[in-house]
């Protein structure tokens, strides 16, 4: 339909990497995402007047149609369409509009699914695009890659610790509180709430044994909870050091090259 | 009215950077801030005897008049008056006295605004001046600047995470607890209280699905909460290293200069 | 009974270090551990139908027999049998099966001990084997070794802090809340829940003195709680740095060796 | 009375730095401290049988007499007696026994002061002596010294933040919850419990404005709470680096000295 040149220009606009029209398109889309999030959030509040609800629904239809148009254009201008559709950003773009059409279809079929509607809020993930081209995200990525294996082992240790804590507290507290610590899965809830130091206060040990056990679990557990902080911190330090070392090495190389040139 | 020399001396006193009278003025003002904070705090306690209230009011008037005089003098001695008025410290100095005159005006107009009166407590921000000339604050500033972009992206990630957590828990818990998880905004309150590990215990999931979802949210969320600690720690390390590298480079440069001088 | 060669091959299979059959045996055992954990967890839920209970019991018997066979084979193929039995992994393997036989024995003797049954869940510790050969675990181990003495002193400081906090709060709160702060041991529970920032909300100070005391305890206490994070982080950084220094030193040594060879 | 030599030997025993009798004296005293802590803790439990109470009282008298003897000997053998009495360890040693004699005196005067008795538990501070000669404590000390000014500024920032948070929440929540947020001091309790993420759940905002304000307070506040961790971590890293640099510098110096010797 349209020339290859127009297509390329359209792609540039949608990518939002260039100044001028592309930047404007970018900010309009960000504004729409934020607007859409706010309306969807308000929409879940019970007891809002029907006129407000009607306005929210209409504005939601308009916004989703714009996002659908954007998605269609992105697929259209992509050099490899399937690759875009199944890429991270392609899937996020689809998640942003799919719940609307699913609830529409279910609604026409007479099924009311509020839950699916809530998923429209996941279009907030599109805001991640704001950070797409930043050096920071690359540094994060590199730090996570460095600490990946360690984080996996930390996750394994955490799971083991949660089970050991749940087993122990079940043994101590089940006779005294058969409701709160009814089973190991119930005790797992306690273990998680305690070891993350959230401590809602809906379940807590009341026996002396359970409290002493909690002491030991927390002494060991907080150390394990502290490890990922240390890991990410340590990895980020290393990434920064590597960056400055690379800069230094480049400077030295340039100087040497000059020195040889002089010689 | 007064000579330029007297004006310059007055400025020196108010800045509090020099020993002698300036230092004394400085400590008197700090003492007045602390005294003023204490009286304003006591003033909000309900049921204090009327004589105490009267004394507190009078002492507040005296303290505010002194602060007003100080503010006037600072504006008077400033080389560029508007620049001082709209500077960070100028605004803080204004915040310290403005609520008094606003409540006075409102009181004369027959309006009682306790809220505005509480804002007088914001004069505690003036205590930040204690740290104004310290090397530490400069190091903090530099570390925050180094980690600025990263902290911004962390804030974006946190906001996205809060929304995703709120959407998910709303889906799981709303049918079981229509009061506590009445809407996405209500669920956002839960998400914030949980991910910061404050865990008041006013809202918490009770369904199995909601609890398993909470597990995943916390596993990912605590990692994100841990990142800023790592960022600031890593940035502070770098600032310290830069400082010691700069000292080292200076020493080497001095030695080389001596070496050449010898040659 | 069997040849030394067959024994060696069996050992290789059980160790799971080689690709092929050994790897398959490894994954089957991991699958059985996970399956066993899930069934044991479900088994503690009250009110599950009797058929489900029967199925769970039978599958538990089968799994434990397989683990017993595995344990027997491991003891059989071990070069030094006693050494394996009293090694860390040998004890874990025993813990995984012992509770089954103990409850069986107690059951035959007419004693019902649900608590001992729960201990079967400790076979989750066998999952630690997943991380046995990873470089990460070695790094963890080295970091903990570096920070060992510091962690011990932190533990001592924490214990002292807990006692000081409990003593103080008992003094302030016992007269006002004789139930919640009935004794120093009761106050220790409060001290632990507060200083780890879990904050269940079952006990908290209500007097002005107790609250001001809590402020000071938290100001000092959070610093102490923060120290182990710093310790482990700092130790992990050092381990990483040592590793990269060692690599660098090796590279330099190789280059020098080449240089000499050329000369 | 006794010879200077015997006095010196006695001092060596009490200091516990040498192997042999001194080490034994040291461990006996540590054991007595631990025993004394346990008995004093048990003593506060209400409803223990009178015989147990009598036994605890007698053993407390014996232990305190031993500690008094030890204190007397320490004062006796100290080269400068007043200096020891007012030293850190001298004061701790006095705190360990003084409450006993104070309660005795008050008891004879017919006054029952349970509070003072609880202070005997502070003799747990004597356990700090365990860490007296460790290199770790020196490293801690150096790290705290490095981060001292920064920690002071962090404390100032925390205090300012607490006041700003309390002022703000008082403004938002006082009309809705006049009991829980009765005054700024009451709100300060909320601010502290929230910013340290303890979150007992005794006070929490219920208005939309108060909750949104809490969000901003936590976003800024957790960053400030995270700073000391970063500071101590960063300082400990630097201390470790300085130590290894010093070792390296020594090695290089030794090598150079050898090199010159060869030349």
Automatic annotation (TrEMBL), chains A, B, C, D:
Which GO molecular-function terms appear in the entry?
A: voltage-gated potassium channel activity
User: Where does it localize?
Assistant: Membrane
Q: Which SUPFAM superfamilies match?
A: Voltage-gated potassium channels
One protein family per Pfam: Ion_trans
Stretches that traverse the bilayer: 24-43, 55-73, 85-111, 151-172, 212-232
The record describes its membrane topology as: Multi-pass membrane protein
Identify the residues that the record assigns to the Ion transport domain, covering every copy. 23-243
Give the GO biological process terms. action potential
Q: Which residues form a coiled coil?
A: none
Single GO cellular component annotation? voltage-gated potassium channel complex
Classify the source by domain of life: Bacteria
Q: Which UniProt keywords apply?
A: Ion channel, Ion transport, Membrane, Potassium, Potassium channel, Potassium transport, Transmembrane, Transmembrane helix, Transport, Voltage-gated channel
Family annotation (PANTHER family):
POTASSIUM VOLTAGE-GATED CHANNEL PROTEIN SHAB, VOLTAGE-GATED POTASSIUM CHANNEL
Protein name (Swiss-Prot/TrEMBL): Voltage-gated potassium channel
